[in-house]
Design goal:
Number of helices: 3
Strand content: 15-25%
Structural class: alpha+beta
Distance between the termini: 77 Å
Largest sheet: 6 strands, antiparallel
Shape: extended
Radius of gyration: 24 Å
Number of strands: 6
């Protein structure tokens, strides 16, 4: 049997001082770079390039629980009822959140837009929310490519 009454008191876990200083330095460097960028009017990078619209379609995405989504055309006619909507449900959830924050109409249509430079986006004109579908991989992009061509 071990006698714990004789053990040394345990020191609290501490973050090493050099690590704290390094984290502070990282925060200050980030603020300095951001301030410099704003004050000098540096051009924004990483934003999608403008291009002509090749094709677009308006649809309505309605959530149906954690995984389900219903896709309607702009007139409210059923296109797809997906009990396991996968990535389409993810986009619908993001759209629903943006509209909730903006206190916007949840039943308004969104546009799936294909641009001449190959970009494919979902754009919500109600809130200004948009998502670049190519950022999520080819399989997820393909789900919305099928929707844009669906009759």
């Amino acid at each position: 049997m071990t006698d714990f009454s004789q053990s040394k008191p345990r020191q609290p876990d501490m973050i090493p001082r050099p690590l704290l200083l390094a984290m502070l330095g990282l925060v200050l460097a980030t603020l300095a770079l951001t301030t410099f960028s704003v004050l000098t009017g540096r051009e924004k990078l990483g934003q999608p390039q403008d291009a002509a619209i090749v094709q677009e379609r308006s649809i309505i995405l309605q959530g149906g629980g954690a995984q389900a989504v219903t896709v309607l055309d702009e007139n409210g006619q059923l296109l797809l009822d997906l009990p396991h909507g996968g990535f389409i449900t993810v986009i619908q959830n993001g759209l629903e959140r943006a509209r909730t924050v903006a206190r916007a109409d949840q039943s308004a249509p969104v546009r799936i837009v294909e641009f001449a430079n190959g970009r494919l986006s979902v754009i919500d004109d109600t809130t200004g929310w948009s998502v670049e579908l190519g950022s999520f991989g080819s399989d997820n992009r393909a789900a919305f490519e099928r929707l844009i061509h669906l009759q």
